[in-house]
Amino acid sequence: MEATPRVDLRPLKPLLRAYALGYLTVTGPRLLDFLKTLGKKHRSAQENLAILYNILKTSTQVNRFPAAAALIVAGATVLPRLARSLLQWLLFALSKTKGIRLSGNLNHRIHFVCSFLSAWLAFGLLNRDEAWVRKRAKSRTAASVDMSNFESPNQHHLPPPSYHPHYAGKTIDFTLFVFCRALDIAVITVWTRTRSKPWHLEHRSPTLANFLRKSADPSIFAASAAIIMWSWFYSPERLPRAYNRWISKAADVDGRLIELLRRARQGDFVYGQDTGQAPFLGGMCRDLGLPEEYGDPTKTIPVPCEVYHCGTSTSCEVHAISRFWRSWKFAMEIYVPLQVLARLRSRNSKAALDGLKSAARSSSFLAAFVALFYYAVCLARTRLGPRLFSYKTVTAQMWDSGLCVLAGCLACGWTILLERPSRRQDIAFFVAPRALATILPRVYDKRYIYREQAVFASSVALIMTTLRMGNDRRVRGVLGRILGSILKE
Q: Transmembrane protein 135 N-terminal domain location, by residue (predicted)?
């Protein structure tokens, strides 16, 4: 009796892992938010079940992230197998030679093309969100001007525009994330492949090459943090809402102080001139127990740092220490539960202690980030800045209209050096896409969507091909470990 042939399902395991991880990534935060509001909002059991069902069901739609993740992984696992089998069959049919093996370079090209095609299709799925398109169209319609209400003197009317733009940009954050990772891989690949050349920097100047390797990730983070913090102060609409709220919560600053700095930059708050801003800042000084004249730009030049301290202390150093302590406690409330969850399986007391140490170190990094930002602002506007530059050259108005904030933005990011070197890369490439998103338009005309689609597909193809070639180390950090575990068959 012949044995029943078994279907090999191993190639499908990476797809299932990708779908499951994508589903948890999308659904998990929504479930947590639902559980938080379960006892606060008065809803019937039927309403709660309907909301829960909607949360669980929405992520299973074909145009959601789990399906796109599975499709991308299929392009790196299943599709190359089919393509190789088809190509080998064609070569056998043409040459009648058995056992034809494809070269390594051809295999890599097949992997890249298959990954590119699957990522291209996945991008199309993610952008099939009609609700998002309708939302953008509605906001566009509300902001448009009804030309029928205007009549020219000669009763001649301009024809309506022939093209009504549709909007895209739903996946811009995802695209920038994979682009930054692909760029990192490309730089590492070029560096590695040219290492044997006599003109390589490691042969000409080993000390400089070692310095560049160690400072690359901190420099990327410092530059990205500076762009993000500048945007948070002066262009908060360029940041995602959730990210903006998180920064505001970590900064823990009186909104009136932020408004003062924005008005100073816009020219509404001017030292030596009565522009009607004295009551605004005077009310803040009164609430802090400070003299109201501190907020009058015609009487007090510049605004004392005590106002910037929000009533904490008259000393800039004491204020910085206070900021560090408050931010450290805030960060520990976030990092300790995460470390506990990560080590639930381990019953070793040493693992628990290591988790607490890791949480304390990460919290110290975040606390130092916040404290150094505020201290750099004070140093620039009243302590160190006036000693380096005369008030005739760099006036108090110039410091408070942007230079003091710029000093804080440039200084705070270097606290990444407090983190472990193995963590710096992950943190740097977490914030780099968000910094790019503040520079690039978040919403653009949909007829140009093919540009983003090409960048997305090329970046994903490079990442997946690098992993399948066995160069896992080039896909550094958490991303490499996650993708490596998903693609394992």
A: 312-439
Q: What's at 193, amino acid-wise? A: R
H helices within 343-420, ranges in order? 349-378, 385-388, 396-398, 404-412
- C-alpha span between 277 and 279 (Å, rounded): 6
DSSP notation for 81-134 = HHHHHHHHHHHHHHH--SS----HHHHHHHHHHHHHHHHHHHHHHHT--HHHHH
Cα 105–Cα 109–Cα 114 angle in degrees, nearest 5 = 150
Here the tokens at position 457 are 């597909």
pLDDT in tens, 307-365: 888 878 788 899 999 999 999 998 888 888 777 766 665 566 676 777 788 888 889 99
Residue type, 428: A
Q: How far is CA 96 from CA 42, 89, 99, in A?
A: 74, 10, 10
Nearest to 487 by CA among 471, 469, 467, 461: 467
Residue ranges of domains in the chain: 9-134+167-202+444-489, 241-253+310-423
